[in-house]
Known about the structure:
The chain contains 15 helices and 12 strands. By secondary structure, it is α/β, with parallel strands linked by helices.
Amino acid sequence: MSAARPFTTLRTVAAVAALPLLLASCGYGSDAATDEKKVAAEGAKLSTESVRVGYFPNLTHATALVGDQEGIIQKELGGTQLKVSTFNAGPSEIEALNADSIDIGFIGPSPAINGYTKSKGKNLRIIGGSASGGVKLVVNPEKIRTLDDVKGKRIATPQLGNTQDVAFLNWISEQGWKVDAQSGKGDVSVLRTDNKVTPDAYKSGSIDGAWVPEPTASKLVSEGGKVLLDESSLWPDKKFVITNIIVSQKFLGEHPDVVEAVLRGSVKTNEWINANPDKAKASANAKLKELTGKPLGPKVIDSAWPSIQFTADPLAATLQAQADHAVKAGLLKQPDLKGIYDLGPLNKILKAAGKPAIGDAGLGVDG
Length: 367
């Protein structure tokens, strides 16, 4: 599959490294971040000049959005520059990782699984979690009133083989319906559609609904769509990994200090998001405006935000389940996921903060 074009060209975020007294007096938040970004990068560089991080302009990637916008990740990096690029869906981000265009990525579980298995376990590791939830099946209520009505309709997913695509194909299978995974043809027409254009496709009537992440789901609701199913209802405890943090094994081996800094920034970002939900929501929206040219409307973001949980836990047991779903859909041969996780750096950070270790469900390098 050809690589999707990033939404933004590679962009260097202003490095933030404040003097100790300044840091001691500044908290996180838009005003603090603005002040910090004016400070020249005077901190010591880590083992490399820069680190290239990829993520999506989705609310399910709010850890990256907010961590970037508020300068939280950059502050942990000191004089090492954070450079970011954005993608529409996971397969294109995996291609960028394989092509050595990015070093670290925020990404859904299915592309991470595919990338790991296709490289025979040699290209990436999952080093932490970022978010759970935030995925919904939204439909045109005039055409689809019940789950049974989905049969025979045209439903969009972001990209062939991405996390939502696999989840929808699995759900279709559980209804006893048949769809060819590659073509998307069958009892339901699965139309792979860029999240940027899905709302317009819905308005034009070319699709009858979509299984999509936030904020696309709430954009469809704002256009008259109805949430027919929240994917979290299909999972134990209503938790499933939607966003992981991955790293190329080469970069992890050569620059463990940089990996730890990005992880530490991500953990601190999630803590700040959970402690300051309204400020975090505004911060994520400001970054989305910068990346896409338009912020989310209040109704959209207020609807989307509560359905996402931000956590450093990668919810490893749900990754194995999602791999099983991809196998059942015919998109993946039964994978050996042993070694896909390296949670050592994350657990080192958590231990230093007096927090309990997170498990890898036996899928770690030492599991």
